[in-house]
DNA sequence: TTCCTGGATC
DNA sequence: GATCCGGGAA
């Protein structure tokens, strides 16, 4: 099986997803920060709280005290840290781009990635999510789901760090923004529903292709 | 109890 | 690489 065959299987299963929930660029960026290590349902609660208080733009976040933001995003678990991360991004956008996403995304992806990674609270996965889904940049997004799935399916046999995994994948697929968006979306969806930490192997489309697969007749994998 | 679309710090 | 952060649903 190739990576594109993996992608096609998931796309056949779920249809095109394209994915990232959020009606505005700011909402996508906010979601990318708030979703760190937290269930997306909790992020939705926090985003609704921000929306009800007209805090879903970085103009408002920039001039709002961090304590007020923290109180609204409590469902995202690390709310004090994440409130500061939102403030840090707002400061960055204000100081470097006059609070304009158009100006920010006018930069090339590689330059912008380096800038985003200098913001305290923005790591590689969050930066890449912002670049791909908020900025339509050709930047593949990897994550713990991707590493787990590719490990179980036998694509990778040794641990790769984040950047190595991104390189491993992008070498084997067409360089296309919409493909990057949908492929990550499919992997996340499948990993959250089926190939979970405790996988639901029954009826899995990959069946015997999975090296982590434990059949009911195999007492101990 | 476990698990959830991480990142910073030491 | 180990630990902190520290809510909510199943």
3D structure, described in words:
The protein has 12 helices and no strands. With 221 residues, the protein is mainly alpha-helical. The chain folds into 2 domains: 3-16 and 141-208, Helix-hairpin-Helix base-excision DNA repair enzymes (C-terminal) (Endonuclease Iii, domain 2, Orthogonal Bundle), CATH 1.10.1670.10; 25-134, Hypothetical protein, domain 2 (Endonuclease III, domain 1). The model is unreliable at 216-221 (pLDDT under 50). It binds a DNA duplex (10 and 10 nucleotides) through residues 31-32, 35-43, 45, 74-82, 85, 120-126, 129, 141, 143-146, 184, 187-188, 191-192, 196-198.
How would you describe this structure in keywords?
single chain; mainly alpha; Endonuclease III, domain 1; 12 helices; disordered C terminus; DNA-binding
**End-to-end C-alpha gap:** 22 Å
User: Helical content, roughly?
Assistant: 55-70%
CATH C-level category of the largest domain: Mainly Alpha
What can be said about the biggest beta sheet?
Answer: none
> What is the fold-level CATH name, i.e. the topology of the largest domain?
Endonuclease III, domain 1
* Beta-strand fraction estimate: under 5%
């Amino acid at each position: 099986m190739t990576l594109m065959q993996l992608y096609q299987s998931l796309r056949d299963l779920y249809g095109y997803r394209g994915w990232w929930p959020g009606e505005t660029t700011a909402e996508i960026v906010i979601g990318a920060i708030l979703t760190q290590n937290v269930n997306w349902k909790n992020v939705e609660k926090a985003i609704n709280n921000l929306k009800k208080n007209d805090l879903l733009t970085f103009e408002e976040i920039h001039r709002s005290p961090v304590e007020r933001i923290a109180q609204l995003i409590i469902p995202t678990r690390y709310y004090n840290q994440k409130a500061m991360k939102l403030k840090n991004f707002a400061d960055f956008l204000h100081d470097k781009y006059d609070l304009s996403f158009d100006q920010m995304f006018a930069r090339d992806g590689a330059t912008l990635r380096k800038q985003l990674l200098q913001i305290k609270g923005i790591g590689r996965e969050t930066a890449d999510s912002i670049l791909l889904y908020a900025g339509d940049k050709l930047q593949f997004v990897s994550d713990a789901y991707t590493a787990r799935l590719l490990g179980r399916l036998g694509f990778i046999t040794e641990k790769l760090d984040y950047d190595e995994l991104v390189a491993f994948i992008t070498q084997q697929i067409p360089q296309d923004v919409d493909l990057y968006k949908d492929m990550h979306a499919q992997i996340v969806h499948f990993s959250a529903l089926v190939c979970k930490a405790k996988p639901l192997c029954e009826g899995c489309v990959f069946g015997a292709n999975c090296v982590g697969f434990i059949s009911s007749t195999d007492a101990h994998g």
